[in-house]
Amino acid sequence: MSKPLTEVAFSLGYASGDDDLVRDFYVPCLSSAAKYSRAVGYFRSTLYVLVGLAFSNFAYRGGKIRLVCSPHLSPEDIKALDGAYEERDVVGDRTLADVRDLLADVESRPVTEFLATLVACGVLDVRIAYKPGRAGIFHQKIGIFEDAFENRVSFNGSTNETFSAWDVESNSESFDVFRSWHSDEPGRVARHAEYFERLWAGNVAGLKVKDFPSVAREELVAARLPQGIDDAAERVRHLVGAPKPQTSDKPEKQSPTTRRTLQPHQSEVLANWRSAGYRGIVPHVTGAGKTVTALQAIRDWCANGRPALVLVPSELLAKQWAIEVEKDLSNLHPMVVTAGAGNSRASWEGLLADLTRDMVELGPRITIATLQTASKPHFVSRVQGGPHLLLVADEVHRLGSSGCARILTIEAGARLGLSATPERFGDPAGTARIFGYFGERLQPPFGIPEAIVAGRLVPYDYYIHTVRLTRSEQESWNKLTETIKREYARLPKGIGGSRVPSDRFQLMLFRRAAILKQAQGKTDLAIDILRGEYKDGDRWLVYCDTQEQLGDVLMGLQHNRLPAYDYHSAMEGERGATMGHFAARGGILVAIRCLDEGVDIPAVNRALILASSTNSREFIQRRGRVLRWQEHKFSAEVHDCLVLPALTDDEVGEETAILRTELRRSAEFAQYARNKAVGMELSVLARQHGIEDFDVVTGELEGNHGS
Fold first, then answer.
1. Is the separation of the CB atoms in 294 and 435 below 8 Å?
2. Superfamily of domain 460-688
3. Does the structural domain 264-453 have CATH classification 3.20.20.210?
4. Angstrom distance (rounded) from CA 107 to CA 595
5. What is the mean pLDDT of the chain?
6. pLDDT, tens only, 588-607
7. Which of 274, 422, 588, 683 fits as disulfide partner to 540, beta carbons 3.0 to 4.6 Å?
8. 446 DSSP 8-state letter
9. Which three-class secondary structure state does DSSP give residue 421?
């Protein structure tokens, strides 16, 4: 993965007389960025924004550019816009003329073809801005780079995207640079970003903004190179007489003998997948290399020109998959398009049929799509399913939801699911849909003990801490339990006689679980634990359940002068800076659910779980986040907060159901921990509360204890 923008050494400004603008600023930014938003002058001059792209790995990493520029309007055009003529015709005609001028220019033809290829592949999205009825042209010049961690760099000044502007020997050009992570600069970056978003949406007074005219786009895209971005970039590099760049992030094309070697468990599971008719689910634990396994399946399937469709639950995972495809499959020269994940519908919709069609002459094709996009009718209807298509689903448990039912109508000759825990918690019908479409769990198993022995995860110690419910929390638990029992008795029976949970029933379960997750005593307990355990150089991850709980814990830690930072999905533009600071210097990262899927922080060596969960997938994922191997990381610690019933005259009743719920999770953690004495602690705790049938080895509780 590329380094964040925070690791680039920026000057406060750049001038062409003193700096090589491409080498010193433009390429370093593109090599770290995931997004580039640019407002410039004429469309024809914006062509040369692409020259710098040829010297970075921006497109290969799934980078996206949004460009706002102006057509070259003559006085007659401006007069027409001020009159009764149709604006779209004038702007469209002038933009089409600009495109044809570019295509006719033999000298710049390689750069034009590069532009066409980027547009066709969805890397570049262009909109046209103009001032109707005014002699002036749109000539705002700002740019914003943003990396995968939401760090941003903005610049403004006299620079335009032309050869002369970026050439070190050109006329004088200069611009100022601002960084979002510097205390005195984020306001300027935010203003630049806010302006660009308004501009992109057409909400700037005195300007009109249009999508790139369709006729002009069609003529431009027709000039794309069928070999793809790599060859188009190489032609641009040849044009300017520069060598092919070598960066740590853009590897040389790999031969089949230099790709990552599969471990025995990965090779065996793929062999069993093929034996099962290209059906099955890889249920290997987090950190076991499920993505690498799937990439090998994709390589084998696409090598003869067949297409693959990869489905992921989040934008972040879509970006990570694009990076992995680039690293592992570059020797196949596949056409890779991402649907969703911030890409406009127009960037992929017209390509989807060909991307999934049974035509080997089109070559290897890989479509990466978020579930939010893939579940839409306009997506599914364009997929050309059949025996030729491979469908890979990362975090396959997500596809059992009713919202993903449409995806499971796609006909695919090969189907591969990935999930450490493919069963859906409390949803047997959804689980049945998953296994019905993808097939059964594949052998061999590869769990926590196998991953630790293989060095994929580090060994860990497990410590339990207890907190009691208040009397009012206990009363709320008991009342909800009685209501849940009555609702359960009314549920209809499904396949095999199991109850089919209703939305109302699941809501009741969530409400009751929230009582444990948000127990009042957890905040003080967390502060006490960390005040006693934290040491300089530690990297703690604290899992909270709600924004309110996160805020209370964060405030308490900071009051005790501990280096604590928050991390949650509502943060605007700060998550990348927080994560970068945490990885470099350590501290305490206080987070909520946004870290359960798709975000790996291997530097974490100690964790405290406040968001207790009975959902095995959630707590297995949380443990996996902490145990991931990293150089110089030899072990980890997991601290768990167990909720006990309130002190009452009779604890051996409904109150013990609370501890039974907590013990099931704790037994799973204790089973593979190095400190085996924690199992004895759990057994003692169970007996102290009247639970005699607890098996610490299996985590099972004998008998039927209701809901």
1. no
2. P-loop containing nucleotide triphosphate hydrolases (3.40.50.300)
3. no
4. 50
5. 80
6. 989 886 554 445 566 788 99
7. 588
8. -
9. coil
The tokens describing 666, both together, are: 């704790």
Residue with tokens 């355990």: 533
- Strand order of the β-sheet with 13-15 is 13-15, 174-179, 152-157, 142-146, 35-42, 64-70, 124-130, 208-211
Nearest to 530 by CA among 612, 575, 590, 471: 590
CA pair distance 337, 344, nearest whole angstrom: 12
- Is the pTM higher than 0.70? The answer reads no
Pairing of strands 460-468, 636-644: parallel
Give the pLDDT mean for 24-46: 80
- Please report the beta strands in 488-621, taking only residues with DSSP state E, as ranges in sequence order: 539-543, 564-567, 587-591, 606-609
Q: What is the pLDDT of residues 619-655, one digit of tens each?
A: 666 677 788 877 778 889 999 999 888 765 444 455 5
Q: Is the peptide bond before 444 cis (omega within 30 degrees of 0)?
A: yes
Domains 22-239 and 460-688 share a fold: no
**CATH code of the domain made up of 22-239:** 3.30.870
The pLDDT score that the predictor gives to residue 226 is: 67
Nearest to 142 by CA among 177, 186, 180, 183: 177
pLDDT digits over 129-172, tens only? 887 765 445 556 789 999 877 889 998 865 444 444 444 344 44
Domain residue extents for the chain: 22-239, 264-453, 460-688
